[in-house]
Amino acid sequence: MKTSKHLFLTGLMVAGLFSNNSFAAPKKPFVKQGIWRGVFTLSEAQVPFNFELKGKDPEHAVFTLINGSRRDDFHVQRIGNDSLFIKMNTYDAALVAKIETDGRITGEYRSLVPNFRGNALPFTAEHGQSYRFAEAGTEAAPAYNISGKWDLKIYSKEPTPNRIGLLKQNGNKLTGVVMSVVGDSRELEGTVHGDEFELSGFTGPSPIYIKGKVNDDKSLTGEISLGIYNNIKFDGEKNAAAELPDPYKLTYLKEGYKKLDFTLPDLDGKNVSLSDDKYKGKVVIVEIIGTWCPNCTDQTSFLSPWYNKNKDRGVEAIAIGFEQKDDLEYAKYTLGKLKEKYNIQYDILFGGIADKKVASEKLPALNRMMAFPTTIIIDRKGEVRQIHTGYTGEVTGDYYKDYVAKWNQDLDALIAEK
């Protein structure tokens, strides 16, 4: 209930800021429309991102993050005369910024999770700058073309599976995606200058930064930074045959289990179970997600329209959300935002705190909860027929196309079963 009270008071304050007060100071001109270049300070690195602002006033303004061909839109609020608040849609974080007198924007990327003492990322942004890392014509000519598929060997404190890099270079311009057993990085954009390369990506969750070098033997060495402290080093070898572990074999039922069993509350606090009449005799898709997880929201953006199109064929779906706070009221807020944004018409349940160990305890039939998202498909008899770990989005090209083709083929077959 503290969260509800906090949100209510916040709403009152924001409403007051936007109220028609004849004694309020006149509003300053709104932030300039057009293309902007922002730069996060991430430890010692400068991590650039590009965005566009459209709308002459905050009531109609749209903030669009640009990453290669990807576009992500967000709503803009003006607070007072010279401050902006840009909520990162379903992610409980925001860009909180000030419009400086010289037209620049300065501020920080800030977590909004109640009582979460996360480190904010400071940034600055300038209008009219469209480049990523270096202005056109100022980079050194690339010494190599690193387009292709790369097998990335990861070095970290704990054993970590290799990753795959799919890169595309055109002159100095570099775009790509990094795939892992839990999903993908979303589209990254950067540059190759001499024998070095840089990539960055910011779509709402914490920014990603990759810096590397092409060695004399044409192998790669570098580092991937996710947020402030999550830095991992890698070596890369070009390998057209490189593959990740089979995502259909990583998570499975323990010996002796054929079915999945759970009883969890929905967003109204009502307990829901797979044994409920609603799910008997139907194919059921169980999606294990979190609103803080970009691959989860990408999976939801695929599943929700698919379900809305196919729900009359004898198929149901359930999303189980594990959130950044173990509180149903907070989950009602975050998962409710997800439901609204993606027009989710299937049940959404709250599993608890976002922790793989907790998720494994709530779903004891699974060998382990390896990744958010994990998608489980159950047949008409209530038996688990398929478990898929992670999610690879459209930016992965053929991997995404193959996933969609197999999804439709497998679901069609299960729905057709008596």
UniProtKB/TrEMBL annotation:
Keyword entries, A-Z: Signal
Residue span, Thioredoxin domain: 253-409
PROSITE patterns: THIOREDOXIN_2 (PS51352)
Gene3D superfamilies, A to Z: Glutaredoxin (3.40.30.10)
UniProt keyword annotation of Signal present: yes
UniProt GO MF annotations: antioxidant activity; oxidoreductase activity
Signal peptide positions (record): 1-24
PANTHER family: PROTEIN DIPZ (PTHR42852:SF13), THIOL:DISULFIDE INTERCHANGE PROTEIN DSBE (PTHR42852)
Protein name: Peroxiredoxin
Organism: Chitinophaga arvensicola
Taxon lineage: Bacteria, Pseudomonadati, Bacteroidota, Chitinophagia, Chitinophagales
